[in-house]
TrEMBL record:
GO terms for cellular component: pyruvate dehydrogenase complex. This is Biotin-dependent enzyme. Residues 23-98 form the Lipoyl-binding domain. Residues 1-20 are annotated as: Disordered. It comes from Sediminitomix flava. Pfam families: Biotin_lipoyl (PF00364). Its cofactor is (R)-lipoate. Keywords: Lipoyl. GO terms for biological process: pyruvate decarboxylation to acetyl-CoA.
Length: 112
């Protein structure tokens, strides 16, 4: 008999990696010629998560579509810029990835 309710294997958690380079800022990319901002429709990571290159960070809603933004970095999520449903301007800070305890104060967006 086939079991439709069989549990899938648990999602593998990335192993903490000590990065050799400084923390990296992931910015809102310009996904179309007319795009001025994107709306964070869903965060796929949480503050403090360890991630690997290729992991989906966030779902971004634009004027044309909702797209997933993947990480090109390994490390720990040190900063998330906005809540779900809020907008981020093109080239604005979305996420900062680095080592646990790393000083990222110089990378944080300034408020006027």
């Amino acid at each position: 008999m086939f079991n439709f309710f069989k549990k899938s294997s648990p999602k593998r958690k990335p192993t903490p990696i000590k990065r050799t380079e400084p923390a990296q800022v992931i910015r809102m990319p310009k996904m179309s010629d007319k795009m001025e901002f994107g709306v964070v429709s869903k965060w796929c990571v949480r503050l403090g998560d360890y991630i690997n290159s290729g992991d989906v960070l966030v779902e971004v809603e634009t004027d044309k579509a909702t797209m997933e933004l993947e990480s090109y970095e390994d490390g720990k999520v040190l900063y998330l810029s906005v809540r779900e449903g809020e907008k981020v301007d093109v080239n604005g800070v979305l996420v900062i990835i680095g080592n646990e305890g790393e000083d990222i104060s110089h990378l944080l967006p300034t408020t006027d």
